[in-house]
């Protein structure tokens, strides 16, 4: 058990918060429900959010493995609805991986790719998706 906790803690401690993340969350969390969907284990996902002091800006955290799912399974949208306890009018998936893009495509959502390096930017542009280099560029 101690070894497991040390493993979880190492992921939390090594996590990086980009400088644009907090201003973005402050801006959007008052107008929209912010849900973090992660393929990591729940302790790590929630731990990273707490470690960086983001919990008051995030309405729900969904660790897909807790539901027997992983990105890009479209059933994730049903989990989001259930966790929020409400119907969802529209969804914007903001991500940095092709799996995030595939999730958005599978649920019929708008996708915004955050590409912080040239390779990622080129990969997303080749898919024809909306690409930004910073969260500050996203208009919702």
Automatic annotation (TrEMBL):
GO CC annotations on file: cytosol
InterPro entries attached to this UniProt entry: HAD-like_hydrolase_sf (IPR050155), HAD-like_sf (IPR036412), HAD-SF_hydro_IA (IPR006439), HAD_2 (IPR041492), HAD_sf (IPR023214)
GO MF term set: phosphoglycolate phosphatase activity
GO biological process terms, semicolon-separated: DNA repair
Keywords: Hydrolase
Pfam families: HAD_2 (PF13419)
Transmembrane segments: none
Family: Belongs to the HAD-like hydrolase superfamily.
Full protein name: HAD family hydrolase
Provenance organism: Ignisphaera aggregans
């Amino acid at each position: 058990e101690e070894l497991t906790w040390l493993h979880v803690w190492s992921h939390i401690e090594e996590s990086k918060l980009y400088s644009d993340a907090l201003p973005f969350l402050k801006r959007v969390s008052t107008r929209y429900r912010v849900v973090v969907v992660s393929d990591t284990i729940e302790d790590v996902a929630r731990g990273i959010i707490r470690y960086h002091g983001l919990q008051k800006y995030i309405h729900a955290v969904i660790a897909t493995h807790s539901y027997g799912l992983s990105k890009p399974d479209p059933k994730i949208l049903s989990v989001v609805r259930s966790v929020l306890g409400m119907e969802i009018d529209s969804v914007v998936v903001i991500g940095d991986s092709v799996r995030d893009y595939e999730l958005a495509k599978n649920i019929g959502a708008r996708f915004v790719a955050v590409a912080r390096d040239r390779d990622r930017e080129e990969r997303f542009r080749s898919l024809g998706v909306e690409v930004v280099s910073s969260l500050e560029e996203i208009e919702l």
